[in-house]
Protein 1
Amino acid sequence: MPRILAVDVYQVAMPLKYPWRTAYGEDHTIETILLRLETSEGIGWGESSPLPQPHYVEQWSAAAFLCLQQCLVPAVLGRSFGSPEELQQAMAFVKGNTFAKAALDLAWWDAAARAQQKPLYQLLGGTREQVPVGADFGVMDHPEELLPLVEEAVAQGFPRVKLKFRPGWDLPVVQAVRQRFPELVLHIDCNAGYTLRDAELFEQLDRFRLAMFEQPLGYDDLWEHAQLQRRVQTPVCLDESVRSLHLARQALALGSCRWINIKPGRVGGLTVAREVLQLAAEHGVPCWVGGMLESALGARHCVALGTLPGMDYPADIFPSDRFYEEDLGDPPLVLDRDTSGRPVACPLEAPGTGTEPRPDLLRRWTVNHFHAHA
Ligand SMILES: [Mg+2]
């Protein structure tokens, strides 16, 4: 049974190539948490990226760093765990703080896979070797900027396009894209930018045959989403609202969604992600993999998750050069093509995620670090 011997946690500010604009704001850097776990059986790396401010959910990277330093790491250091479920149990005394918990959980999975000399996706139970990925576009100044980019994504064979959606960048944008691409698989991500008072807007959007409305209403809401889902034909997809297995269970019972976007960081790690996926499948609700603009290291955990059965919509997994001049993760993530020429992310056939942070970039971009050992 592996014993946790030492933990290093790094809060890292990764500069983006250009700001990423959504309903909750504008990010110039992605603040991520890297965690190096040393167990009696070897090492593993985890990454969890809650953003620099608490504007996606109530968590943020500085708080995740402190939660790990003051609460989670002291609780697990020196202890042995036979399974990731046991590790989750040891972290359960901390309420919420899923991104902090995920950093430990993901490092645990990576260490376990490396110790067994297996790629992470195999240890996780993945059944496919290619994960279809989509193209995403943030809020821009003018729709004229967007259309050529969507055209390029379509030409590159991306199987679906996701548009960020917020007041002022809303219905006319969808209308313009739909007019130009009548058959494109298209959906919007509202990042909790609306309330039930805007239900009419979503009723009007039904005519554009979108694949889903991602997180239209409050980040902590389930009930209003259930009301909205009854009023619209387009499936509602929950992202922000599903931050635990318990919340997933309530969402499914209430009928709040017909899709769930699963991010390992938001739900507390791969262990919980797998449980949410299983529960959703029991309710006939398909899932897909989201992302938080992690480095290639964190993105590799997302790729592994995307190989599981039940992940039925192209993932938000991006090649390194989409958002970063230099990627903290080594090797950087590049997309492959499937037999019909569509972009896919393939797990590396190396132990664990097969990815480590670049030491030079880790040194340059770390804003906080702590080391603890048993
Ligand atoms: Mg989202």
Note: The mean pLDDT is 97.
Protein 2
Amino acid sequence: MILDEKFVNTIKLIALKNAIEFDNNIKPDVVISRAFSFSKFIIGDNHDLKSYIPEIKAIVSELQKLSVDDKKELYADILSRKNDYLRENEKYRNGKRHQAPEGKIKQKTEIDAAISKPKEQLLEFGLPILDGAVEGNVITRFPPEPNGYPHIGHAKAAVIDEEYAKKYNGKLILRYDDTNPLKEKLEYYDAIKEGIDWLGVKPQIIKNTSDDIEKLYDYAKKLIRKNFAYVCDCSPETIKKNRINSIVCDCTLNSIDKNLRSFELMVNGNYSKGASAILRYRGNMSSLNTAMRDPTLFRIIKGGNHPKVGSKYTLWPTYDFAAPIEDSLDGVTHALRTKEYELRNDLYYSILDNLDLPKPKLIEFSRLEFEGIPVSKRKITPLIEQGIIKRWDDPRLPTLMGLRRRGILPEAIRKFVLSLSITLSETKPSIEILESFNRKLLDPISPRLFFVKDPVRVFIKYLDAESVEIKNHPTLDMGKRRVHFENIIYISNDDAIRIKIGDTLRLMDLCNIEILRIEQSGDDDKVGNPDNKIIYALNKGNEVNHKIPKIQWVSEKDQIQYKILRPLPLYSGDKYNENNLVIDTGVAESFISKLQTGAPFQFVRYGFCRIDDQTTAIFTHR
Ligand SMILES: [Zn+2]
């Protein structure tokens, strides 16, 4: 059996993605099932798919041999430089690109064919077409509740909502879903807007659900008049118990008129009988779908001071009621929400049906969080409240301000989110995939500088020059800097511990040295390295020698004390990771103080970082 070439390419693509999602381990069964689900778009129906299994397994085992980095590189390349490839591959096919490493380009060509093939099904890589979308008429909405700082999960929703609106020349609405005055704060509205702006997401309309409370009351009355809703003043415990046991309470027997009068009293804050009265939807108390067991539509919330409407209302709609009506009134055509709402879809459509309102199409996607870096308020908010983490922009947090402070670029988040598509699988992607997108963007804009951790002093004999000019980027023109020195430089203790008398090594962009002596220094000379040692060396000129180690250095005459914060995962499994912030101290070239706060750069042999303040950087990633 010879497989269609395009189908083979698709299989490879699926397998690479699977490897990245599962610790470099491609699961043949997953690849087979996904390949089958794609097959009809590529090779059509009428195939005995089972007969393809041995070949799919063979392809998987070939790809499995690639190193984890090769897989990731291939994958990230495809996604972040898709257009470049198309051009490169075009040239390659036309025989104009002679120096290209053939194997790699060929692989990319195949994969590119795979990702460009199902175009009739996919808009961008992995983003499926919207069912029933009409060019120019698509309206999506991003509806965050302003009860916390926006995080990577919000970014996923906002980017996908916007991307769809853009693809179909439609509109994106940012709607603050603000119906709980006890939890919402002005600070959070602002933080969400700031996060959205930073991501580059541009909604055409911005509004609040709290603008429409009166309208929502009107629709509630309409439901009551049609006998689809009733006021229930049973105790919360009774309601809970009845829901579990599918028991209908006596409140359901009240007349429409009585329900209307009770609701009116609730609206006006005058309902005295049972402080916890709620308006319930007449669903089906014996439904297998528990979301349909007469859910709450309105509840009384007293004592709140809503950031937008103050104390004007005490009766507030639930998400279950507000979301479908707001979506429908806003003209939303496609409402995307995370998979945990799936059980509530029946309720959403049922409410709109009973109110004769147009129904948006609901689409689910999996929520996004990284392994060890949860987004749930339950896990994050206590850390802030207890002062374990001081600020919402802490680089250990998955908040957008935390990711920004860490040095993640908004464009990397966008590319990363689109690479995940809107799959329903609940796997947590590795943050390394986001980092690989980010690295490609940072590389051409980050000057290369030197930092030595735990510095060890090196005296160099016959270092005659007084300064050296060093390029800020090895291949791009990012200017040069002049570093002044006398005869003392620092190297990192990590390098010093490997050095023996008689060794020759290269101080990058300076000279080669030969190690003459290694001594313990007196207390006066203590500079920070744990062993407190001093190295004496001899300048051995500038001859290029690829066999000797190349290390970075910092001139004693041209240094500042410097600190790097390295964030690690917040949690290890369910347990808070006590050691989630490493602080590396040492000396850096004084040139670094010329960079502005927020500027990205790379410390050679250390990694990409972002300036946090005059003497501190945050480690972004390798
Ligand atoms: Zn009741």
Note: The first helix runs from residue 5 to 21.
